[in-house]
Amino acid sequence: MSIVADNLARVRERIALAAAKAGRAAGEVQLVGVTKYVTAQRAAELLQTGCAILGESRPQQLWDKAADAAFESLTPNWHMIGHLQRNKVARTVPLVAMIHSVDSPRLLKAIDDSAATTGSRTKVLLEVNCSGDSEKHGFTPEALSEFASELGNYSSVEICGLMTMAAGDRNLSTAAANFAALREFRDQLAGEVPGAIELAELSMGMSGDFEVAIAEGSTIVRVGSALWEGVE
Ligand SMILES: *Cc1c(COP(=O)(O)O)cnc(C)c1O
Hints:
Elements: H1 3-21, E1 30-34, H2 40-48, E2 53-56, H3 59-67, E3 77-80, H4 89-92, E4 96-102, H5 105-118, E5 122-127, H6 141-147, E6 157-163, H7 172-190, E7 201-203, H8 210-215, E8 220-223
Parallel strand pairs: 1-2, 1-8, 2-3, 3-4, 4-5, 5-6, 6-7
Bound molecules: pyridoxal-5'-phosphate.
């Protein structure tokens, strides 16, 4: 097996184990393979190894990889997982299956406008800052709660759920608390948004903390470094 295939198998095993421990099916947790550390060639290798969803945190890197010859005959589901500036929306929307990082009403509006011109409906997650870390992007729970009743006004986006990043201190019990806070906030928000919006997805968990995220109800984990260990 190639190193990438081996790493992917190990990450999948860890996901399955964490899910089983939480009494959940492994199939309830989707894996986004984060490719920001590697070349388009390596990213394509990960896709061919069986990881159908690839994530990038910088728009320019996503555009470059998507246009690279390595992806000529391949169609990954690209997920935009990092901060997205409004002037980069029009170029990003046609390339992606989901945007995890919607952190303001203005960005949501820009994505909605852009999706309307392409005639598609873009799947999005609303990013929530659950850690109170001012370095992190995302709505505060209070701000998102205030905005909840307006979420039905964006007809070219499908609002699928919430995303968060744990506090940067790499402490697993802090991460678990941040993830539990996102789940509890989702349960509250679900009662505040228009009925057609489901908020089924919780994008939380990275290489260092995806097991605790799965224990707290994560449905999408975004894993980078664990997939690229030992890869040049
Ligand atoms: C880089 C990144 C990840 C993956 O982080 P790893 O610790 O390398 O697994 C996940 N989410 C976002 C938003 C990122 O920027």
